[in-house]
Structure formats: C-alpha cells, structure tokens
Design goal:
By secondary structure, the protein is an alpha/beta fold. It has helices at residues 11-23, 34-44, 60-68, 88-92, 109-128, 165-175, 183-190, 195-209, 212-215; strands spanning 3-7, 27-31, 48-51, 78-82, 101-104, 139-141, 144-147, 152-155, 158-162, 181-182, 218-220, 224-227. The chain is built from nine helices and twelve strands.
C-alpha cells in the first residue's frame, strides 16, 4: 500500500487530508512538527511527503533540507501545502530541493488528489528506470538499532543520530563484534593510518551520537574499543572513556 506522511500542525487540515486520502486507499501517517516529521520520514520511508511550511520546532524548508541530505530520500516526491506558498523568500529556499507541487491553502479537494496522484506517478516512473537493490539489513545489539541504508542510530525506538559514512562504519564494526575490537584490527579494517587517528575518530563518533547514555557505551579497553549495549538502556556502563 502506498504510504503518505502528512506534516502539518493544523488538526482540521490533517483531518481533511487524512479523510480524503484514506478513502482513496492510501496509508496515511501524521506528524505535527518538523522535527517529528524528519524522524518519521526516516523510520516510515514514505512514498510521498505532504509538507506544510510554517511548522513548530523546525519549519518545512529546514526539515526537507535534512531529508534531502540522505541519499535514500533524494527523489522522494514532495507536495508543499501552505498558505505562505506565494512568498518569494520562502520559495527561494526550496531551490534544489526538488519539490513536485506547491498547493496553496485553501485548496480544492480535487487539486489535492491531482497533486498526490501526479507526484506518485512521477516517482513510479523514476523507480521503473532504476535497478532494484536489496535493502541492507538492520543491525541490532541490545537496545541499539543501526540502519546501514540510512546510517541512522536508534535506541529503544528513539532516533539518536544520523551519522556520516565513516563514523557509521566505525560504529557498525563495533556493533557486530561480541566483545572488544583491537586497535590494530580497526585501523586495518577501516583504513586509519595511526592509533591517534583512530582515537580521534572514536571521539568524533561519541560527539556525533550526542546522547550521553549512548556515546558512553563506547568503552576503551587496554587494547581496543567495545560497544556495550544491554537490552535495557538503564544507567550508562562504567568504563574508561578516554
């Protein structure tokens, strides 16, 4: 079933959109602010985004900028639905973000349906000309879940970070190991030229993870690093965090 995510902070508008598209047989999901919309985009992988501009926490343009930085969502069709759609300064910010349609509030239901169907049809046409690749399997270690395709890190269903490729590869290498990984093995496997370069990479990874309980689970042993992830998050495990 085609999955659509509507990011809109007006309950009446969400109800209208949901009612119309549900009757047409689409699977509808809702988000009420830009930050939640971004996180749900990563977790749900919708076939289409319906995006308001003036959203709390993170506006629609900032949300779409973050979404488009992930290669998986570079071509996800987007219909912008906003009362501010005629504002040149706002529209300018959408340059290079590949918006399919701008639908101005108030709009006719027929226009909404037309935009949705056209955007989905164009997306289907693009996909039909692309080779199909198998989705990378997620990596689960205790309460931690890694998505190699999106380079996302989740703890107990909560998005912690979206990592750069090299940082994600380092975390992935630690996650698939049942114990500590020797410095020499990490340097050889991941291409670090010195112990100091590896040490800086680990520190950078901890900073990118942000969440204190999560980053402190990357422990330093006498000869390497280990990722500790019990099934429950609980208090951070004690260790040497050099």
């Amino acid at each position: 079933m085609t999955r659509i995510l509507s990011v809109e902070d007006d309950p009446d508008m969400q109800h209208l959109i949901g009612d119309v598209l549900f009757r047409l047989g689409y699977e509808i999901h809702y988000s009420w602010n830009g930050q939640d919309g971004y996180e749900k985009t990563l977790s749900l992988r919708p076939d289409l985004l319906l995006l308001d501009l003036m959203l709390p926490i993170m506006d629609g343009v900032a949300m779409l900028e973050k979404v488009r930085k992930n290669n998986f969502f570079r071509r996800t069709p987007v219909v912008v639905i906003s009362a501010y759609g005629d504002n040149p300064s706002l529209l300018k910010r959408f340059d290079n973000l590949e918006v399919n349609f701008y639908l101005h509030k108030p709009f006719a239901v027929s226009d909404l349906v037309s935009c949705v169907k056209s955007a989905l049809r164009s997306s289907e046409n693009r996909r039909s000309h692309r080779p199909i690749s198998a989705a990378a399997k997620e990596i689960v270690k205790g309460s931690l879940r890694l998505n190699p395709e999106l380079r996302t890190v989740w703890v107990e269903g909560r998005l912690i970070a979206t990592l750069p490729p090299k940082s994600f590869t380092l975390l992935e290498r630690l996650a698939i190991s049942s114990g500590p990984v020797l410095w020499e093995d990490l340097m050889m496997d991941l291409g670090y030229e010195s112990h100091e370069a590896l040490k800086k990479a680990v520190q950078r990874l901890r900073e990118e993870l942000g969440d204190s309980e999560t980053k402190n689970r990357i422990l330093t042993s006498s000869h390497g690093y280990e990722l500790k992830c019990p099934s429950g998050l609980g208090p951070a495990i004690a260790g040497d965090y050099r």
